[in-house]
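In response to the reviewer comment on reproducibility (Comment 2.3), we provide here a single inverse folding case reported in full, input and output, so that an independent group could reproduce the run without further information from us. The structure tokens appear first.
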């Protein structure tokens, strides 16, 4: 860990230049010749990234940042806070500690945290930052967490793991066994050290593939931030053999939309109907969950088509996603399009429709934006239709 960047003048320079154009800044002469210019530039770039994502770190003094890529890959504070609310106890060990954002929030839920990080420099950075952030209940281990577990006689209330994809798995549909550590292979060993395990994975992982590799899964969580899926979590309890609950959360500025259902519930089915007065589009976490019949059953609303994943009702309901009032439904044909939408401004979405948004815009000269929201989709009778709507806030 290079502490030279903590010099007051350098810290002042980093703060003053946060948000600056790094490309232009890099062409300037280094005002601190005793410290590598690239180190200072990296701190400016990483701190800029942290402003929205890691506000606690951003406002604290004398924080050392890792590379910009590490900041991009770490949990945001909002998802870390939500994640920490899911588990609690006296002790937790994080086998893949990284920049420590998750552990900062675990420190508020647990008496003691163990942060393991194989990168010596990053481990030292997190230890330094936690002193600045006044986290006093965390111990640090720099090295392979596997070695630490094997040598320790301790048993923890929770093990937390964020396995990383191996380099040779890039570009492929990946499985948990393609990651380090290889959780499916090590699960029995982990159960010797804790009865409860929380595994975080990238949203690219197929949920059913993850479940096929794991055992004793009680809950699977899908976490989205501002309607973008950020994390999947598998919550595992030793000897658990019951049903699996799938829980979704979409964290918004002023609220968190939640939805849950039991995987494989036989009583869930959709009722298909033509569009009614109101239209509903599920948030991205629900879309990732695949619980489309459950949405129809639980909210008692109708589905437009088996593959459209749009819902409708005569009376307005609270809903975890976007809500619209249907102003008009037209057939997708030349006459109706020319009369209603050609050369106009509208927000265009396609669901179960043969043409792309880009093609539709170009073909009918529809400008982007405005107050109209148009859904190009297929109805229950397999007709291509357009729902012209206004958004309900």
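Designed residues, in position order:
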């Amino acid at each position: 860990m290079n502490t030279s960047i903590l010099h007051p003048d350098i810290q002042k320079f980093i703060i003053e230049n946060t948000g600056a154009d790094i490309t232009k800044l890099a062409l300037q002469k280094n005002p601190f010749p005793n410290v590598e210019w690239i180190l200072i530039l990296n701190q400016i770039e990483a701190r800029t990234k942290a402003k929205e994502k890691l506000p606690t770190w951003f406002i604290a003094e004398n924080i050392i940042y890792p590379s910009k890529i590490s900041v991009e890959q770490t949990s945001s504070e909002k998802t870390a806070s939500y994640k920490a609310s899911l588990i609690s106890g006296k002790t937790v060990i994080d086998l893949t500690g990284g920049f420590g954002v998750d552990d900062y929030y675990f420190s508020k839920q647990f008496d003691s945290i163990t942060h393991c990080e194989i990168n010596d420099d990053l481990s030292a950075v997190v230890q330094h930052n936690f002193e600045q952030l006044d986290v006093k209940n965390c111990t640090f281990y720099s090295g392979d967490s596997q070695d630490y577990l094997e040598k320790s006689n301790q048993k923890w209330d929770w093990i937390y793991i964020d396995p990383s994809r191996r380099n040779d798995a890039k570009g492929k549909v990946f499985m948990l066994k393609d990651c380090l550590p290889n959780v499916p292979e090590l699960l029995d060993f982990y159960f010797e050290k804790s009865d409860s395990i929380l595994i975080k994975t990238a949203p690219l992982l197929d949920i059913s593939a993850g479940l096929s590799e794991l055992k004793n899964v009680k809950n699977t969580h899908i976490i989205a931030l501002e309607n973008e899926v950020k994390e999947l979590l598998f919550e595992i309890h030793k000897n658990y053999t019951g049903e699996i609950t799938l829980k979704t959360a979409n964290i918004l500025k002023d609220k968190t939309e939640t939805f849950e259902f039991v995987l494989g519930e036989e009583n869930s089915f959709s009722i298909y109907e033509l569009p009614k007065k109101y239209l509903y589009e599920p948030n991205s976490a629900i879309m990732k969950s695949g619980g489309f019949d459950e949405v129809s059953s639980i909210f008692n609303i109708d589905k437009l088509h088996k593959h459209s994943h749009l819902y409708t009702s005569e009376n307005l309901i609270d809903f975890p996603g976007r809500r619209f009032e249907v102003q008009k439904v037209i057939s997708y044909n030349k006459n109706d399009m020319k009369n209603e939408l050609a050369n106009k401004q509208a927000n265009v979405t396609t669901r179960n429709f043969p043409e792309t948004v880009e093609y539709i815009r170009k073909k009918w000269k529809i400008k982007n934006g405005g107050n109209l929201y148009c859904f190009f989709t297929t109805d229950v009778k397999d007709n291509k239709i357009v729902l012209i709507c206004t958004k309900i806030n």
